Amino acid sequence: xxxxxxxxxxxxxxxxxxxxxxxxxxxxxxxxxxxxxxxxxxxxxxxxxxxxxxxxxxxxxxxxxxxxxxxxxxxxxxxxxxxxxxxxxxxxxxxxxxxxxxxxxxxxxxxxxxxxxxxxxxxxxxxxxxxxxxxxxxxxxxxxxxxxxxxxxxxxxxxxxxxxxxxxxxxxxxxxxxxxxxxxxxxxxxxxxxxxxxxxxxxxxxxxxxxxxxxxxxxxxxxxxxxxxxxxxxxxxxxxxxxxxxxxxxxxxxxxxxxxxxxxxxxxxxxxxxxxxxxxxxxxxxxxxxxxxxxxxxxxxxxxxxxxxxxxxxxxxxxxxxxxxxxxxxxxxxxxxxxxxxxxxxxxxxxxxxxxxxxxxxxxxxxxxxxxxxxxxxxxxxxxxxxxxxxxxxxxxxxxxxxxxxxxxxxxxxxxxxxxxxxxxxxxxxxxxxxxxxxxxxxx
Length: 444
Prior knowledge:
By secondary structure, this protein is α+β, with helices and mostly antiparallel strands. It is 24% helix and 36% strand. It has ten helices and 28 strands. The strands form ten sheets. The chain has a five-stranded mixed sheet with strand order 10-11-8-19-17. It has a three-stranded mixed sheet with strand order 1-4-2, covered by helices on one side. Strands 3-6-5 form a three-stranded mixed sheet. The longest helix has 12 residues, at 29-40. The termini are far apart.
């Protein structure tokens, strides 16, 4: 049994006084939330966690918002506002991450695995960049993700429904509203429709009353249940519907203009450099539609947790640098874009070998920029795969920042050190393959 006590006191004096909340008893957190909501005439729902855990809570003459915040602190929950409905959500699974000199890709993938959330890593050689040290102990997943963003500013996380795609460069732009109409709010309805509901556990009755108020049919799958009686205090129907889905641990989808509460998928799909084609095949039975994959050999790393098949497919597409396309007949295509840092070469531009100039003294001007030919195809491929993006081929040898420059005979050029590529050209054909590669300038 866990006990928590919050004692709060405020004084409201004169004309600035407002309706206050006073609670002083031991009860389950769901019952305490009902007390606070009833006194304030607002809707406050408890989501997830142990709803029957006893809690000793006391607050005296607190305004509504402060009372909710106090109850959240006392119960170890987070406040989430969904329009005019307020939720007390159980924190996500705590994550402990302790790494020294680890690459970003490994840390992000493990954070998603520990947090048991759906998170895919966009295929990118930059994940294998310089290592860093991180020490997080028992923090919610979202806080861990915020800490990772603080130490890795290039990290970005896109949401596809309840799935996440992590990347270190911009992902392909897609219209999720058009691709995933199932995840949009129900169309039409009565904009100003509001619902007042006395405590009830009959989800069928709740859906029937929502349908009347909303002007849109609301249907609940027989497997979806309310875990405890809920009370609504004059809440807008859209806010109430989305909040009920969270309370029931269900997914809200739109089908044929109707709102459906369906069970949350319980399956978790994990992959580590798995072929995209094989992962799509695992999703295909649930998807119930044909899928064409331009490049099934692309690799998938991460997990899909509790994903609807459509949102899982779109997340997989983004993580493998594909543009998902959905035809009117329901068929899908994952159109492949060029992979960052990697490409298939058909030919390259060649220029005569170049003899770099003699080095300048440290007191001289800025290093000069000179032309350099790109070298044989295997070496150009190595350049494209280099995560730093600053490799070059000089006299037929691959050089990276800080490398001494050698000639074709392998002799070191005294005092000449490669710094960076300052200009380069890659030309792609209609299939996304590189047909021309030319590194035009480098500095020493």
